[in-house]
Amino acid sequence: MSDSAATPPLTFLVASPHLRGGFFGDALILLLEHTAEGAAGLVVNQPMETPVRELLPDAPDASGTALLGGPVQPQVGWCLYQRPVGGLDGSELRLVPGLLATTHAGTFEQVRASGQPYWLLLGYAGWSAGQLEQETREGAWLWLEEPTPDLIWQTPAEQRWQAALDRLGVDPSTVASGGAQA
Predict the structure, then answer these.
(1) Residue-level pLDDT at 182
(2) Cβ distance 11 to 145 under 8 Å?
């Protein structure tokens, strides 16, 4: 059995076209955890105005743009990267081949030292028990499953929301407001 066949796909939450304005308007969220207790994810398409070099002035490789990962704990940095670095104390969250995450400063240093591409995100998005399900029923989120992290590595951040809609075959102008009713 191949590694990709045994690995569950990545789940993205795609903001409904009706979520315009506000923090989550046009957001694409990489869902990290979804349990009966709640859910957590990282917004992967909202570049910050502050460049990485200002956030990490001592880092020689700190070029590019950081992303605002969500409104919860914006002082906490997340790193998304491609190849394992043997993170300290089990600090590497392996999502799928080609995509790992960490909040551990030492592991982030190892990622930077490895020279591989990475994204720095500040904060995360979180939902309490049942909240994400309710928002989905109300039509706030479309769900997209992807077997690879191509949306993160091969699509510019500003184009990811539209690319996700395209993968779902959704034309934003045809989505009615409101949610699913049973």
Answers:
(1) 46
(2) yes
pLDDT 10s digits, 89-133:
778 999 999 999 999 988 988 998 888 999 999 999 999 999 999
pTM of structure: 0.88
**Was domain 7-174 assigned CATH 1.25.40.10?**
no
- H-type alpha helices, 9-155: 52-55, 105-114, 131-137, 150-153
For the purposes of burial, counting CB atoms within 10 Å of the CB of 118, is it exposed (0-12), middle (13-18) or buried (19 or more)?
buried
Domain positions in the chain are 7-174
Are 161 and 170 in contact by the 8 Å Cβ rule? The answer is no
Residue 126 φ/ψ region, left for φ over 0, alpha for ψ in the -120 to 50 degree band, beta for the rest: beta
